[in-house]
Design a protein that fits this description.
single chain, 258 residues, L-arginine/glycine Amidinotransferase, Chain A, 3-stranded mixed beta sheet, 15 strands, globular, binds citrulline
């Protein structure tokens, strides 16, 4: 078991007006841009409360989904992996993120075509990374990341997804061998050895929560998940995420944390 990661920095990016026309598979309706901005501002405030310094990038109208910065990189304390996002409309988002990360990292790796990989498919659990194969991350992208991780002394485990959009749509790691799991991860052999906070199908959206130093940030409205987190000793911050859920995004997607 590794030490808990103490996060010092986060990168976030303001959603542009084009956000409302971004990619989605949900049928929850079109986001309300004013609410999008309010919810994003609350997210940034919550991160500040967790004690991190925030690098806040301006909106880019040419990339409707670019507020979901998590998909563009996989970060550890020692190195950065610039991904090759699986949807072509998002692919060039990596340029800005790479240049921003140059201010923080010297050691870079890259996922290269024909490999594709979205950061939302990557979950770090101590010195091991789980890598989902999804509609966005292909086998070649997952294989490349596994090789990179191996070269840096980390382990990679590939997990083909059955239903979830991204790996982290249905799972979070809270340290000390405790995961939050929903849907196809409840009985998944790759996660059998971990203690679990299990999330019911109707509360599935709350499985995408993030531990940032002393707090778990969780979507608002999922009392059972929040109660169970509080029961095991976590302080929680609940955030209204309705306008991000409409575009298939969750809490983890909105920041790069390192
Ligand atoms: C997309 O389809 O790419 C965005 N609408 C949602 C991305 C969510 N990102 C994530 O789960 N890491």
């Amino acid at each position: 078991m590794g030490d808990l990661i103490l996060y010092k920095h986060v990168i976030v990016k303001t959603p542009g007006k084009s956000y409302v026309n971004g990619l989605t598979t949900s049928d929850l309706g079109t986001p309300d841009y004013e609410k999008v901005l309010q919810q994003h501002a609350s997210y940034v405030e919550a991160l500040k409360k967790c004690g991190v310094s925030v690098t806040h990038l301006p909106a880019s109208e040419e990339f409707p989904d670019s507020t979901f910065v998590e998909d563009t990189a996989v970060l550890t304390q020692e190195f950065a992996v610039i991904t090759n996002p699986g949807d072509v409309s998002r692919n060039s988002e990596i340029k800005e993120i790479e240049s921003v990360l140059k201010g923080f990292y010297a050691n870079f790796h890259y996922i290269n075509a024909p490999g594709t990989l979205d950061g939302g498919d990557v979950l770090q659990v101590d010195d091991q990374f789980f890598i989902g194969i999804s509609n966005r991350t292909n086998e070649e992208g997952a294989r490349q990341l596994k090789e990179i991780l191996k070269s840096e002394g980390y382990k990679g485990t590939i997990v083909p997804l059955k239903e979830f959009f991204h790996l982290k749509t249905g799972i979070a790691y809270l340290g000390n061998d405790l995961i939050v799991a929903a849907g196809e991860f409840l009985d998944h052999p790759n996660f059998a050895q971990y203690k679990k906070i299990t999330v019911s199908a109707e509360d599935e959206y709350s499985a995408n929560c993030i531990l940032v130093n002393d707090y778990v940030i969780i979507p608002k409205g999922y009392e059972e998940t929040t109660r169970r987190l509080n029961e095991v000793g976590f302080k929680t911050i609940e955030l209204d995420m309705s306008e991000f859920q409409k575009q298939d995004g969750g809490l983890s997607c909105l920041s790069l944390r390192f």
